[in-house]
Design brief:
- The structure is a homodimer of 432-residue chains.
- Chain A is of the alpha+beta class.
- Chain A contains 15 helices and 17 strands.
- In chain A, the strands form three sheets. In chain A, strands 1-5-6-12-11-10-7-9-8 form a nine-stranded mixed β-sheet. Chain A has a five-stranded mixed β-sheet with strand order 14-13-15-16-17, with helices on both faces. The first copy, chain A, has a two-stranded antiparallel ribbon with strand order 2-4.
- In chain A, β16 and β17 (426-428) form a beta hairpin.
Chain lengths: 432, 432
């Protein structure tokens, strides 16, 4: 009988062994793809100085950060906290180790981050982020934005059974348009309306533009712009046709054109689309922005994203460090895929061979045999309980694909039989 | 110029990319060995209820635990904290998910734990523990103790370049001896003296026994016992020769005999030794205890250990859950191996091929070529900077083993040359 509540605290993922194995496999596959694309694994501490973490946070983020204490203090005095993303620790890492790194520095971080937000379905307080970032010193050509997008697409393809598409935009296009229309002081509101356009009806979007005081003409331009999406040629030619004489706007269009062209050159045309609705809420993105969606499962929404930031570590150093990065929020994604039956977490026994000694006398032989099978690359376990043979076999069949019974005669003759628990078939074991 | 202190907080490990790669490789190897031995990976939240974590802690451990807060509170009111080991969350996990697990349940946990102890060289406040545990329901045969020790030995052999030895004891032997000598009320002191015997001179140990009031005769018995170590036959026969009529003592000797016999049956005789000095400080071990040492580097001390606990989760449930577990403290071990030059963290470029487009016009071709090489299993990166060719090649040679220059003629003819940056040799690239 349970004496106390042993459930994990709310907002935490805790999986049963088979689901955990599927989760871990996905994490490993993502990591392998990131490394294959030349990103170097780094790991920063979970706990960092509050002054580092809060240098960039503020607002809601700061409220959500977990502060840590060792002795009785109040939260106001706390000078250490749990990291809430990988970007801030990356900035600290790059500044701290600048002289030991080669730039452009391509880094990947896969680990747990923490936000103490109100727990709700599919939202986690502790969650895995799988990040790639490329940091330049002084400058970083736009071509690297394509590198990040291609890498993430490759990572998704490693475990998804449904197509994935990167929806790409460039914030310079939006901000250039806003500037050309003379709406700079309404910039923050406009970004927010575009960011929400997908979640509300076209009427609501129109009304929102009205409410911030845009004219009929401005609204129709903004609505047409927000709805523009499609392949590179379609979107780029439409944008160029606007004939907007704004340098930032044209710069953004050219960058979008180049990033998408480089992705097409890698055979990724079917996995990319330009979409003016993608602006990404975060303030620090300054150029390319992108989000990944599953077109056959639109209800799932974004499964990851990222973008370009002109200066990673302006709070920590005078050195200009432009970067581009992207992230897969694996904990949430796993939950969503799982609840949409897009991954199978029920099947798959993790043990190849379960060796079943008939009595204790065969335990030593069984353990030695297990070592030989492991040397051949198999996952092998030995039933060492003192139960009846029938009980041992029941246990073996539950957790393993195959069983090998070892009794006196097997030890004597060395002749062993494998029972396949799925088919019931028996075959001779031949050791290499 | 740096604006603020960007070093990680003291007591945290933060590695440069090459050292991180070596660290990650070791972690992966340990995980692979654990899985090959039939241990199933589980992962518990970093943050847990204080009432769960403190159920077993107390004393120094409780003082070292990091408490976490989201809003202004004092530490006394905190009801959540960071886990300080894997054993307490495992106990919670097993009780919570009991009906979904198969017993004996063989679990592995590899992750970060936290202790806010005073930072000192080689001691970390955040550290990786690589654990294996086997939990029984009601009972768990002693043979499983051998399973854990064999698994850890196999894991060490996967990355150590120096021999490793498991020093094995059984606390029933010590406690039986103490009972037979009528010294039960001095039990805690005696355990502590034995535990420290290795770190002090024989005279100091003798004096310590004197100070707690042992007679000349008792001291000579305890000293002789403490010094007893060697192979199974030697130690077991010596212990049996004491002819101590105490059931617990005899039980301990037989268990030690069986555990070591099962390890010998797997060809591990050279990697094990019986040693009465090993008692392990922790209160909750009740039978087998073991510690791993590197005989050629005695100065390093223990590199891991574990033991048998009769009841994993007595604070959480009335169900008896005996277990045996072991752990490699990877963060400390990595530091120690590194500072003793037992691993090489300086060499090894992580990128197989760096593709160097001469101008931006070749970027697309280069990215596509990179994809083809990745499909063959290589780690491939493309230099996308707008620097001069010489600068691009310098960068490539720094981070990659081989370089492939792509210019107009290469794009036209498809004929590509690989330059090995280590040997300076050039060869033709042949795509499969």
């Amino acid at each position: 009988m349970k004496k106390i509540n042993t459930s994990p605290i709310s907002g935490m993922q805790e999986l049963l062994p088979n689901a955990q194995a599927v989760f871990d496999n996905i994490k490993t596959k993502i990591s392998e793809v990131y490394h294959a694309h030349g990103y170097i694994g780094i790991e920063t501490p979970t706990i960092d100085r509050a002054e580092i973490l809060f240098a960039k946070a503020g607002g809601d983020t700061e409220k959500q950060v977990y502060k840590v204490f060792k002795t009785a203090e109040t939260a106001d005095e706390a000078d250490e906290a749990l990291r809430f993303d990988h970007t801030v620790p990356l900035a600290r890492y790059v500044v701290e180790h600048e002289n030991d790194l080669n730039f452009p520095f391509k880094a990947t971080q896969i680990g747990r981050n923490f936000r103490g937000e109100r727990a709700q379905k599919g939202r986690y307080r502790e969650f895995y982020q799988c990040d790639v970032d490329i940091i330049g010193r002084g400058s970083l050509p736009i071509a690297y934005d394509a590198d990040v997008i291609a890498t993430l697409l490759d990572a998704y393809k490693g475990f998804l059974t449904t197509p994935v598409v990167a929806r790409i935009n460039n914030r310079k296009i939006v901000s250039g348009l806003i500037a050309a229309l003379g709406l700079v002081e309404k910039s923050a509101d406009i970004y927010e309306i575009i960011d929400h356009a997908e979640k509300v009806s076209p009427e609501t979007t129109k009304k929102s533009f009205e409410e911030i005081g845009l004219s009929e003409n401005e609204i129709s331009k903004m609505v047409a712009f927000t709805n523009l999406h499609g392949n590179r040629e379609h979107v780029v030619s439409n944008l160029k046709n606007i004939k907007l004489d704004n340098e930032i706007f044209l710069d953004g269009v050219n960058e979008l054109d180049e990033v998408m062209s480089l992705l097409e050159a890698q055979g990724l045309a079917d996995n990319i689309t330009a979409d003016m609705k993608i602006v990404r809420g975060l303030d620090y993105y300054t150029g390319t922005v992108f989000e990944f969606n599953l077109p056959e499962h639109k209800e799932i929404g974004s499964v990851g994203g990222g973008g370009r930031y002109e200066n990673l570590a302006s709070n920590f150093t005078d050195q200009t460090l432009p970067g581009v990065g992207g992230s897969i929020g694996l904990t949430r994604l796993f939950f969503v895929l799982n609840s949409n039956n897009l991954i199978d977490t029920t099947t798959g026994k993790l043990i190849d061979y379960e060796i079943v000694p008939i009595s204790e006398n065969e335990n030593g032989f069984a353990l030695d045999l297990a070592g030989q099978l492991r040397a051949e690359g198999y996952v092998v376990d030995v039933v060492l309980t003192d139960k009846k043979l029938g009980d041992k076999l029941t246990y073996a069949a539950k957790i393993a694909k195959n069983g090998i019974v070892v009794g006196e005669s097997e030890v004597e003759t060395g002749k062993l039989k494998i029972k396949n628990f799925e088919t019931g078939e028996t075959s001779d074991l031949e050791l290499v």
